[in-house]
Amino acid sequence: QFLMANKLDTAMWISRLFTVYCSALFVLPLLGLHEAASFYQRALLANALTSALRLHQRLPHFQLSRAFLAQALLEDSCHYLLYSLIFVNSYPVTMSIFPVLLFSLLHAATYTKKVLDARGLNSLPLLRNLLEKLNANQQNILKFIACNEIFLMPATVFMLFSGQGSLLQPFIYYRFLTLRYSSRRNPYCRTLFTELRIVVEHLIMKPSCPVFVRRLCLSSISFISRLAPTVA
């Protein structure tokens, strides 16, 4: 009854579980490397479906206007719909599947707990313990996802020069990264950029650091800072 009363949430729960399943079979290619590539695409397509359903839930009344598009781009679900479309037809990259896998796992775990509560507060205690441990590590998982989002930017450039990526991919991914940096709901991308900058500046200011490395890092920090969008 609980699942039927929340049909849209249940559909997203099933698609997230399917995303976790496909992502796991890509990361751990138990069925062979050829099948792993197909699971990579399935995971991203399932994530795109989940993101589209979540976006519909957040913005139910579609309008073909700039105002609606601007509002949609503020939603994290729109960001990951774009993310799935960026990588779904590209060369499989293990790093790109981790944000999809971990976000799906976190959201699926949250809804699974609601399903267990609907069955009874004492149902399946072992599964509840696993979900509690996952929830306890949520902050670390979100930071790891943000780190993946950041380091995928140079990875897309490397893929371009190695012949495994398209010319447009780095530019579209840069747009995705600016959306994540400006996210209202998830500040971890901004936090990671700040922490990485502090760590790099601390290292290059040591006397043992060569002068040319210090200048290169400072120039890179200045360049990246100019590319960062303004956050209200």
TrEMBL record:
TM spans (from-to): 12-33, 80-106, 150-174
Primary gene name: Tmem33
InterPro entries found in the cross-reference section: PER33/POM33_regulator, TMEM33/Pom33
Cellular compartments annotated: Membrane
Primary site of residence: membrane
PANTHER family in the cross-refs: TRANSMEMBRANE PROTEIN 33 (PTHR12703:SF4)
Protein family membership: Belongs to the PER33/POM33 family.
Name listed for the protein in its UniProt record: TMM33 protein
Organism lineage: Eukaryota, Metazoa, Chordata, Craniata, Vertebrata
Single GO cellular component term: endoplasmic reticulum
This protein's UniProt keywords: Membrane, Transmembrane, Transmembrane helix
UniProt organism field: Nothoprocta ornata
Entry membrane topology: Multi-pass membrane protein
An annotated GO BP: membrane organization
